Amino acid sequence: MKKKLFISLKYKLTIVTTLLLAVISLFIYFYFPMKFKEERLSSLQAKANSIAKIAAYGISSGMYFEDHAASEVEIEKLIKTEEIRYVIISKDDSTFYEYNSFTAVLNDYKNNNENISTKYEIMKAYAPISVNDVKIGDIYMGFSLATVYDKIDELQTNIGIISLLLFIIGSVVVFFIGKVFTQPLTKIVAAVNKIAEGDYSQHVDIKSNDEVGFLANSFNEMSEKITISNREMDKIKKELENRVRDRTHELEGALRSLQKENIERKKAEVEISSSLHEKEVLLKEIHHRVKNNLQIVSSLFFFQSKQLSDPQTIEMFRDGQNRVKSMALIHEKLYQSGDLANIDFKEYVKKLTNFLFQSYGVNQTKIKLKNNVQKVELGVDTAVPCGLIINELISNSLKHGLSESENGEIKIDMGYDENHKLILKISDNGKGIPKNFNIEKSESLGLRLVYNLTMQLNGKVEFFNNNGTIVKINFPDPNLIKKAS
Q1: DSSP per position, 437-454
Q2: Residue 113 scores a pLDDT above 80
């Protein structure tokens, strides 16, 4: 944004110098007359005191010897002086002689605290009259200050005229000097304003050998460099415009190609989304049908067991039914879940244990279940073996470990350890397992199934006796392995 020059530099210089000259002129006008007045009054006061002392000495002998003729001679000498306005001589507190050449009232002629009476333009003087160091009287005198004041007024008038002439001449001289010195700067400022408006062909014609001339040369060099630079910039600008135009054509072609690809990609996404939806529907249908088929198998086990009378055979059929039911529950959870790949294993364990307690007709006031399963999501390949393991171990506790217990407890703990492996721990407070128990040599189909399913999970199973049976299974989570890889 262009700045407007409201006050020229020459006017600023003239104003500042004029104010300085005004201050100096006023100082001269008031200071020197005042100084002259102080010096003249001080000199006159000394002179008046000296005249009073001389007069006192001259009339002292006449007053003492009462030689009035001698005293009158001295007094006549005094009153002939034009500057003396009054003379008062006192003796023995009475007036010995009085002379007054003007009509002023002399009520305060003895007031020596005020040497000058500005009202009557009188300077007072006093001297004691003594003979042999014995005071016999006093002399009071008044000297006119009119002449002094006239000279002071004349001096102040002359100084005022000189100060005024000095002020006027100085202001005019400063104005012209400022004009001479600022004229080159005005040219430079005008050229700078033209450059600011976009005219870079400006040239300042100043050839003085001073700072202003050096500034003008530097300005001209700068203007030439700017002109050359602008030419180069114009060339670069045109070249860039051509490049931008070509690049714009290329980008427009690329954009059209991308738009075409984007349309094709959206079509492909729609097709993929449709295909994925069809697959999800199909997968859900598969889980649903698998669940239904497993339910049919479970029902076949149930109806077949109703036709049997051998308790051991009936127990075997019920175990088979429970195993099928545990698998059917997994497919049911997957069918009901929005995620067809993983199930919420905590909810699954809760539903499975409720089913097992109902299947075995457990009185839950006597045998309690503590479910401490963390938030774990498992895929179907891991959930099915885990569900079968929990089914076998819970069934085993209900059939053997707590069959005769009145206050039993089954506890399920599941979560991750510090190595991010899954730990499944099932414990009861029943009669425990036999000493030197070895699951690999066990004749129990359920326990051998637990061992084989644990191996299938790449895990490890351990059995402990601690006020009942504790089974601890440790295995890796395939989901975490996939994320890590």
Answers
A1: --GGG---HHHHHHHHHH
A2: no
